[in-house]
Amino acid sequence: METTREIFWNVGNVALLVYLLAAVVVFIFIYAFIQRIKLWKIGKEEKRKDQIWERIKSVLVFGFGHKRLLTEPYPGISHFLLFWGFVILLLGTIIIFLQEDILSPIFNLFFLHGNFYLWFSLILDLFGLLAIIGVLLALYRRYILKPERLDNVFDDAFSLILILLILVTGFLTEGARIAFTRPDFERWSFAGWQIALILNPSWTESESLLIWHRFFWWVHLGLAFLFIGYLAYSKLLHIFSSSLSVFFRSFEPKGKLDPILDMENQETFGVSKAEEFTWRQLLDADACTRCGRCQDNCPAHLSEKPLSPKKLIQDLKTNLLLSAKALQKENPDEQRKNLIGESISEDELWACTTCLACQESCPVFVEQVQKVVDLRRYLVLMEAKFPQEITPMFKNLETNYNPWAFGFASRGDWAKDLEVKLLSEDKNVDILFWVGCSGSYDDRNKKVSQALVKILRAANINFGILGQEEKCCGEPARRMGNEYLGQMLIQENIEILKNYGVKKILFACPHGYNTFKNEYPQFGGEYQVYHHTDFILDLIQSGKIKITKKIDENITYHDSCYLGRYNDIYDSPREILKRILEGKIKEMERRREKSFCCGAGGGRMWMEENLGKRINQLRVKQAQETEAKTIASACPYCLTMLSDGIKEIGLEEKLEVNDIAELVASLL
Length: 668
What we know:
Radius of gyration: 31 Å
Low-confidence stretches: none
Largest sheet: 4 strands, parallel
Mean pLDDT: 92
Strand content: under 5%
Number of domains: 3
Strand order of the largest sheet: 2-1-3-4
Number of strands: 7
Helix content: 40-55%
Number of helices: 28
């Protein structure tokens, strides 16, 4: 017997009918998918078509390779098995499709013979079984383990059961065929062979096997066609939309805010309707698979605030779909649901700390932070609606160039007794120390500024400060939606730095560092910027400062969101601690990319925290679990929030917070 098989064995001359049905369901899918693309394209234009090779590589690494998905083994492996089983079976189906007698003469393809057929059978059975395992793992996790982050709806169960039935009926069809035809080479179809033994253990010819085979064959075909037709109308659309999301992901610095260009001539600011987002932002609504990883890492959600990044994206999707007929002008008079207030509440928007934990954990690169800021921009600039406590903060930024009510003339007072050089007196410096608002005005953070001065002098670095000429970097205003005020501060700072010819700037604040590094270039400000952890480590490694004694205690390090997730600075602070400690670095469970926000980002440093639990207290408790005596920080916001958290819980006798610069300076 020849090593091959007849494609339409036992089902009659139905090839033409099958191809016609296939054409119909494929047409249904293509039509629905095109309609979805049209809905995305209602959004504003956005350039995401550069760096094609990098985008292809992203799909290979994060899509086919599941790089982010596999950071959580159980769901990652489950999806990996299901995905690759699906891909290989799809390729196998295409090969069978091309091999059938109607098409093979056209394409001159006759390869389901001999050794190719044997390996083809083995591989399809193997990946079919892996896909079944993947589905069963997903069903067990979703409906037995029931993790809180998963919201189970009918579509989830239907999709998984549909895939499972397609796989099982495929194996049953194969088993019935082998049970009747009994070719020995079909042992390569090891799963089908075992099913054949169950269906016909004595290997006797039976008409009932033919009937069962035809039944399984048509059920399998019907389910497969249902799957194709259902694709674009269900969660299964993410097979394509998530891949597109990965392909069109941003290669800009992580979390960099898009500016509002030409502020003076804009009629509206921010976003209040779905179509005011870009097409890429609307694509996110369909790319999101509701896996809940963002929610599991969101400090607002974990502290029982109303915000869930997953829910925010799904609410945007619901709003977009409800508005589809009006947006596509099929029914322009249709009543629409307000995006802000009805679909997404204001409390959700103001709960966000812009910590980027949601985006860093998302397997398909959904971008939540820019959307939150866009919606805040509308509230602030168009409606003048924002938390009451922000009003004096905005006013202080306008009049005193800092978030507090301190006069701008006193900005350099912290350095009066240190005889620090002012650029207004001598601009011939190697590097500008940008002190920042906290380092200039906050009593606790002034000590960090003084410690850094001590380190710079010990290393004989020729540095200076701007003093009263320095203004807020504009970051808090921009994150809170006041783009106009943020841009005003940025432009004024750029002009001052231009006058002094500043090229290199040192920061102790990750928020200022991130803004100057990643956002000032949007407005013409190009500088070499350094965070003090990188700078201090370089001084130690080069021997410019010498550590002659060490700290004999255990310390835990808190990763700042804007230093870590935004700028990938994780190792420098830890390397410094290794060099100055006799004790150990006691890592918190949530660290590095998974670090837990202190609660101050996104302007929340100046807002009341009236909903849920206090984020800073949760982080302090996580630090307490390490049994370390000191929390090392590298951000003034974190230093303030964690210090407050320690006092609020009453742990002053057991735990303290110090900036890394303070720890190093204490050893000089």
